[in-house]
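Sequence, structure tokens reproduced for absentees:
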Amino acid sequence: MSHLVEDAARVVEREVTRPDFGLRVIIVWKVVKGCLLLAVAVSAFALIHSDLHRLGVDLVAWLGIDAARPRVEHLLAMLTGMTPGRIVGVGVGACLLAALMFLESWGLHRRLIWAEWLTVIVTASLIPLEVYELVSDASLGKVLTLVANGAIVVYLLRHRWLFVPGRIGRWWKARRKAPSER
């Protein structure tokens, strides 16, 4: 049993210390966000002609959440004004964002330079909006989103060598240099 634990620990350590581990985490993050956005889009299109307020009230009751809580009350009030046109807009917007997330993740996986810059530009362009949202109404989720997006931008800018042609780019070339040249 301890042999299996040691082997698993070695495998995990080898994967975490790979030069592209952070890039792989970013790719998985983008794919997960794309899947969630796709689920939002499909749900929006499926609920175009539904009474969203009634569905929201039923869901809150089913989950056992107090509907009189200010945030829940505010969310239910927002659902009241959802017209079929707005629901279609949400679905189309979620589809477009999901496509962008999948495009970024595919390009990052293929180590394409345009995908690196697309990801940096799109992610960095959202940071001012996240700061504004954080200042207007702070929450833990907003802080975590800001930190995650900032970390993605910094990681991609600091690890641009991952996108140099070749299996692992300049990292591999630097590792092969003689110690006196470093």
About this structure: The radius of gyration is 22 Å. The helical segments are 2-16, 21-46, 52-63, 70-80, 84-109, 113-136, 140-158, 169-176. The mean pLDDT is 84. DSSP finds eight helices and no strands in the chain.
